[in-house]
Amino acid sequence: xxATPADYDRDPSTIHxxxxxxxxxxxxxGSACDTFFxxxxxSSITCIGAGYVGGPTMAVIADRCPHIQVTVVDANAERIAAxxxxxxxxxxxxxxxxxxxxxxxxxxxSTDIDKAIANADCIFIAVNTPTKTEGxxxxxxxxxxxxxxxTRHIAKSARDHTLVVEKSTLPVRSAERVREVLDTAGTxxxxxxxxxxxxxxxxTAIADLENPDRVLIGCENPVAAQALVDVYAQWVPxxxxxxxxVWSAEMAKLAANAMLAQRVSSINALSAFCEATGADVDEVxxxxxxxxxxxxxxxxxxxxxxxxxxxxxxxxxxxxCEHHGLPEVAAYWQQVxxxxxxxxxxxxQTVIKNLGGTVKGKRIAxxxxxxxxxxxxxxxxxxxxxxTELLAAGAELVVHDPKVSHAKILADLKDSPRxxxxxxxxxxxxxxxxxxxxxxxxxxxxxxxxxWVTLAQSMQSGAWVFDARNCVDHKAxxxxxxxxxxxxxxxxx
Length: 493
Ligand code: UDX
Ligand code: UDX
Known about the structure:
This protein has helices at about 55-65, 75-85, 95-100, 115-120, 145-155, 175-185, 205-210, 220-230, 245-275, 280-290, 310-325, 325-355, 380-390, 405-410, 430, 450-460, 475-480, and strands spanning about 45-50, 70-75, 105-110, 120-125, 160-165, 190-195, 215-220, 240-245, 365, 395-400, 420-425, 435-440, 465, 485.
């Protein structure tokens, strides 16, 4: 009969087995159940992938678990150098302080992937899983080649029994593939595969990690699951640590992102309806959000969702639904993405329409480029669609973002034939100088308190402000004599 974690004394001082000794009567190496009797304690963690997920997650684990040595490895040497010497490769409020506390003590960044794997009891895979661009499922399915490459690395370099944790968002049943790669390597080493999806949102990653709504751990072996539970239990209350089977954990991550994105598409769809009927989308959101069955979060109309996860994960869900013979379900989720694409284009077309039907030769300030405030991340940023459409229509753009550089913006607009007409300004004031319009694309807090009287003085007479985030002070915009369009708001409000 399988032992459960409760069968063992969990007093850390009495748990001595980290590297299990295989008893004579053990099941064959590589078998999924050959570790059931072995209590495990994690004292060293390696994470492959030092990105937006791997970096902050490992920094918080190291900070909260000084008894665990945490090493983050990445194939990108420049990224690792930045984690070691700063400035950090990603901007995330509160991250620097956490890294400073743990770096050099029990938090290490390295490019020596093999050594870090060999030294670890537990290995997190946090590499990117982009949408496939070719082959079966191109444009929808997740490309798992980085995950597979990491898994092969782990099979080769792990010392003996190792926990392999999927942190990257993966299609349901990916753990099976990871398990297969580990087992067919024929190394005789043993592994447990766990799914521990990350729910942090960029911009609030540290707060989300330090005080998560829940931690989800999917695993077939309760002893391995308990070992990972013990890590999080250092700072997360027990009732917030959920254990499930591995497929449910993988599915829950896709489902959570799909449901969140669906709320954003729902409120954005309603924003167009509000504009058409004279209702105010923020008032509608507040009214429906006070229904405790609906809840008030994630009902902010805007320019469409961006970020590395939502679109990719929904497309992946669509692909899986089609694969499993559920075309109606696939079409339902596909529509969440379609509405999002439509909302981004709708904002650009609204600018063009209100500027007399043409923006050719007109100067437009674009305020914000990151996909949301408090991050320098531009993956799937709605700004790319908005800028591309305006450039295609002949506009001269001047972008200002507090955290995104001109070089990054130009790289993101590389497919736009008129990217050279996208300039950069270090301040909002410089961006707005001589502008026919300002388009607010990212909800940076600094944009809430702009001095529109001063800005209006340097803009063209009759200039417009297009607030695609309902983030600037609308009264102040109007009082400054500027014309205003705001998403989901009646033109006269
Ligand atoms: C996220 C999530 O982890 C994942 O769930 C989602 O599917 C994609 O994006 P994130 O941390 O935001 O990952 O990605 P990114 O910032 O691109 O970091 C991934 C890192 O993995 C990069 O630094 C990359 O250099 C590294 N990597 C990738 C490797 O070290 N080895 C590889 O083989 C591939
Ligand atoms: C998301 C999930 O929230 C997180 O749990 C998962 O781990 C990764 O994907 P992230 O993409 O970092 O996180 O940010 P999120 O705050 O979810 O915002 C996603 C996009 O939706 C942003 O472009 C944001 O501006 C937009 N959004 C969000 C809205 O337009 N309105 C809202 O009400 C909420």
